[in-house]
Amino acid sequence: xxxxxxxxxxxxQAGCSAAVKLRNLGYDKxxxxxxxxxxPPYQRPPLSKxxxxxxxxxxxxxxxxxxxxxxxxxxxxLGEEITAVSTADRRVACGSGTLPYDHLxxxxxxxxxxxxxxxxxxxxxxxxxxxxxxxxxxxxxFQAGRRLxxxxxxxxxxxVAAVAAKLGxxxxxxxxxxxxxxxxxxxxxAAFFRELHQSNGVRILEDTQLARVTGTERxxxxxxxxxxxxxxxxxxxxxxxxxxxxxxxxxxxxxDNGIVTDxxxxxxxxxxxxAGDCASLPFRGTRIRLESVGNAIDQAEVIAxxxxxxxxxxxxxxxxxxxxxxxxLQIAGLNAGYDSTVTRAAPxxxxxxxxxxxxxxxxxxxxxxxxxxxxxKRLLDAGKSAxxxxxxxxxxxxxxxxxx
Length: 404
Prior knowledge:
The protein folds into three domains: 173 residues, FAD/NAD(P)-binding domain (3-Layer(bba) Sandwich); 124 residues, FAD/NAD(P)-binding domain (3-Layer(bba) Sandwich), CATH 3.50.50; 78 residues, Enolase-like, domain 1. By secondary structure, the chain is of the alpha/beta class. Helix 4 links the parallel strand 10 and strand 11. The protein is built from nine helices and 26 strands.
């Protein structure tokens, strides 16, 4: 093998984690981390919460001080993009020319969706939430008394709604599905958050289709499919993301709702790997994408281990979280395919929703209940279940489940 080393396309959580892990494992060849943004790798979850609220300065977002990369001999190339990959001769093209590699890690992430430009989706006054630049652009809009329309009732939309309501804006959230959190949570969890937002003054319109954004020079509101309009000073799209697979597709790599990888993170080319939001990985007999910090870190570190000569298989242990108002939601596992749920409520207002498939625990949502989350996560990690009748009994001690 040559001494060309590793090139990482994408300087986010996954890209940074791979580079750091390689050095920690003693990998001594060149590592080049290339990112399109002008910022060193940073954490994204606080963007729609503490950073948007002005409670976290930009420098605290950074995963490592910029000097760290030089100390670790990681070449950090910011404000630059890889434009093409040639797997035949193992080279990438970027703004400054071409670079050879022994291994290429694609950590290109995902891009937020908008309404098409023909429907007003590109008008000034419309925003998405993904990077620092997005938050810097939208932050001045968050002034008390202004009107915000949010398209999309997933976690990003709900987090933005919470920030806006906290700052005194008039918020309307529109969800095309029959209810908020339709794809990702049970009706019980959705009902908890619907009530939470409505009690904080957010207007929620479910089963409501958005036809277009109104306005010519700037967004002035939205028109609904049934013909009515809602005035707005600005609009946020929280209607999901699309994995950034263009580079992989153009290079001839297999793509299926993400860059297809095996259980080690390797793509259809033996010298190319993929991690994070852009990667489609095997899980319980199917393929999934896991849009989470935990997955980005874990998958990237598995790839680093394999490149460093330590054969490793990635066994995903999904977990997620969301902060809204004074509620911390913690999610353990994946609820896809659940056929029943059990809700456990405590006198202090904490609630957890436990998901079962064929009477076996597969996931849990815990609202202000870190104890339930911890126990559910440990059970799932150990491949254990929990009797639904015991979980549903608020007088039972969940810790006994860990001893069986």
